[in-house]
Design goal:
Low-confidence stretches: none
Number of strands: 8
CATH superfamily: RNA polymerase II/Efflux pump adaptor protein, barrel-sandwich hybrid domain
Oligomer: single chain
Number of domains: 1
Helix content: under 10%
CATH architecture: Beta Barrel
Strand content: over 45%
Amino acid sequence: MAKINVIMPKFGMTMKKGTILEWKKKAGDRVEKGEVIAIVESEKITGEVEAPASGTLVEILHEVGDEVPVGETIAIIEAEE
């Protein structure tokens, strides 16, 4: 099975980092492509992080409250073939 990185999205032109406010799923949970798996906040906006693929959320790399640079991997999904 392929491992897919879930990255910290960029919600605005000036966004450089985001803070994880909440995980909607936990490691081991099944996720569907497009499903909201986390809520993150930048200086100007609070937004949703969606699963880029269907499969199992196998690892969460950053916890609630962590500030993460845009583009950095925050979780890993083991995608279905």
